[in-house]
Amino acid sequence: MGQRMIRRQVDEGLELYAEKNYDAAIKKWTISLQKMKDNRLRFSTLGYLAAASRDRGRNKDYLVYAVQQIDIAHEIDDNNLRAQAYLTLSRANEMLADYFKAVSYSRSALQYSAPTESVQGYALLVMADSYIGLCNFNKVLECLDKALCISHEHEDHLMEIHVLSTMGKVFLALKDFPKALAFQRRAHEISLSNAAYAVEENANVSSKFVRLTKLKLATPLRLMGDFDGATKCVEEAMKAASSIGDRPVQAKCLVCIGDIQRSQNNNEVACKKYEAAIPMLQDMNDRYSYTLAMIGLVKALLESDTQKQTATEILATALSTATSMGNKLMQARCHLLNERILSSDNRLEEARQVKEAAERLYQEADLLCPICQKAMGMQSDHIQILTCTHIFHQRCIKDLLQKWTHQAQACPKCNKNVLFSRSYIALACT
User: Fold this and answer.
1) Per residue in 233-243, pLDDT tens?
2) Which domains does the chain have, with CATH numbers?
3) Domain of life, per the record (predicted)?
């Protein structure tokens, strides 16, 4: 096969992918790759295959293609390609919940890319997502602040959407549901606007962000009691995902539907949704969402006295997976569920011990409010983040918040002067 014909096959694959004929596109690229001699074309084609694998939920294939890109970048000795390859490698590891590796590869992407390149912003976003997985929220906030600046410098709306959505995820983890909803709404608004004006080559990515941001609206809506609104969001996201075979979003929609049904005490229906999602997430090696689904299933099962043993076994798997990821919040929530089980069996000493273990994990995650020394993220509350990235209960720094819009105030934790800023942190106090 001539190299000109190979290039044509790659282009045909791109056309098929734009038409949402994903499997045919992957087949074209895989065949063309076998006889491809041009290393730069090989690098690009591996990038297409990596993105396609990610979109189809084949996360281990995504990692394999990223490693092959690294080898080519080193062979050519091109720092731009190194930066792109390390970014792909970091994304693959973040999706596989190997967070320390993801952070390390993100740093390599930063090292090999120029300060003016958008790669820097996307590497920072991977680091932010990884630090959420590791429950290091101060690092999350530092990365997001830098990424937001880069998104504005490059007028990169997809990057800005990702920043806002990740901030929503931060407040969801801290159980400040109104702020989580505000960030997800803003992310969805921008994604809709961006999709309306997206050029053809970016249409798939833009539509994916619309689906994801729509889905992410459902959880804070559910937790604030708007079950109809949450159901509408997840149904629209599921319909869009099903129409193009977006398995990752489909699986997450099933988990979200399970959560909504469980919140309305429809536990039998909820269990079926979780049970449908769990093997899909396991097949995709999405350990983070897999653990969330198991935790949801445990909560639904515990509403039935006959399912306690099954719930205990699933909870042990969820705790083991959360521990292997290094996610302290998930571990703590597993311990709190275990406390509930042990207390119901009148095993009060064991219940006390697992509750103490949960409290230690919140402390290790630096989620004790510096003012009142009580945990943030254990129950619904109003949280405030200062521009130095330190986190407090909003009620604990009420006086500071009343003054900081017009006069610098000292952070109660680090004593740095903080002033109201029009960054993402400022949005957190609206």
Assistant:
1) 999 999 999 98
2) 156-245 (1.25.40.10), 277-367 (no CATH), 383-429 (3.30.40)
3) Eukaryota
Interatomic CA distance for residues 84 and 44, integer angstroms:
10
Instruction: Say what angle helices 3-18 and 39-55 make with each other, to 10 degrees.
Output: 20
Angle between helices 247-263 and 203-223 (to 10 degrees): 10
Of 274, 289, 278, whose CA–CA distance to 94 is shortest?
Answer: 289
DSSP secondary structure code for residue 368 in this structure? B
Q: Mean pLDDT for the chain?
A: 91
Spatial distance between the Cα atoms of 266 and 173, rounded to a whole number of angstroms:
24
Closest among 393, 360, 357, 390 to 376, alpha carbons compared: 393
Instruction: Note the pTM of the prediction, 2 decimals.
Output: 0.92
Residue labelled with tokens 């009343």:
402
Query: Cβ(300)–Cβ(274) under 8 Å?
Result: yes
- The predicted model gives 277-293 an average pLDDT of 97
Phi first, then psi, for residue 384 (nearest 5°) are: -125, 135
